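User: I'm putting together notes for a lab meeting next week and I want to include a structural view of one of the chains we've been expressing. I don't have a solved structure, so I'd like a prediction I can at least talk through. The sequence is below, exactly as it appears in our construct file.
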Amino acid sequence: MAWFKTLREFLRIDKTPMCLCMVVSEQEGAEIWIDDKKTPFVTPKAVALPKGPESKITLKLIGHEDHTAYVRSTHTLTYYHCKLQRIPLRLISNEIYHSASV
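Assistant: Thanks for the context. Below is the predicted structure for the 102-residue chain, given as structure tokens.
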């Protein structure tokens, strides 16, 4: 996994062919984890992935379930979009509060 400041820098890589992947979630601001490593990026963001092999992308956002996908592309540009599922809120009844205070 490599990060590039400019597209020109991205295209100069000769050792490992890279794919530029646009990662988008309907709930913007999700943390982007690639191959179980946290990146400094949040959605929406274009990230560089190795071209060919499968990469694990995990999106994490407070109040939502983590979303994991495996992305593989043989193209120079690709796109990944998802909708994060909210964690359902549950109300706690007063019975629990009263039993704890006795």
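A couple of points you could mention at the meeting. Residues 60 and 66 are 5 Å apart (CA to CA). The two ends are 56 Å apart (CA to CA).

User: Perfect, that's what I needed.
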